[in-house]
Amino acid sequence: MSFEQDLLAAKQRIVTYSHKCYERGWSPATSSNYSERVAEDKVAVTCSGLDKGELTTTDVMLVDLEGQPLSEGKPSAETLLHTQLYKRFSDCHAILHTHSPQACVISRYLDQAEVLELKGYEIAKAFTGISSHETTLHIPIFENSQDIPALAAAVDVYCDQHVGVRAYIIRGHGLYIWGPTMNDCWRHLEAFEYMLECQLLEIRMQS
Ligand SMILES: [Zn+2]
Prior knowledge:
By secondary structure, this protein is of the alpha+beta class. The protein has 5 helices and 8 strands, in the order αβββαβαββαββα. β6, α4 (about 150-160) and β7 (about 165-170) form a beta-alpha-beta unit.
């Protein structure tokens, strides 16, 4: 396939999963952004500030790994959080960033926590490379900031210090998750959102 065909296919996948995220209530009010690697140093990413339930392929643009536009449009304000992951993880080919209520609420509720521990979940096997429920996922929680380069640098430092980072939460904001393909990334996202909902239910039952 040509680069143009690959790019169109990536845009179509982004649109499909954008609509799915919107329908689940994970991407309200023009929030969230999604991307897919099209070449080693080129990424298709959603344009800034669009209704994710109405997204079309013309709302997805091309940027380089510094987040600089390679096609017409204004890339998402959080593009550098995507390119940071593509630069760091060569096997990262798709990223979904949602603003789900559960990611928002749990990180506000655990307002002093720097890491969310997800332990003993069967559905953790949905993550590429995990084959048993006897796995504890450590999900870092970063403080929210409008300074995206600083936030991207904080994620980079955390990844320097920890192996096997699979996702992260930004407090009161949402989550970032990635995978080797968009299909894998979606499966990871569904599993992660499910575990967050379960954690919230547990907290409710304990109070
Ligand atoms: Zn966001």
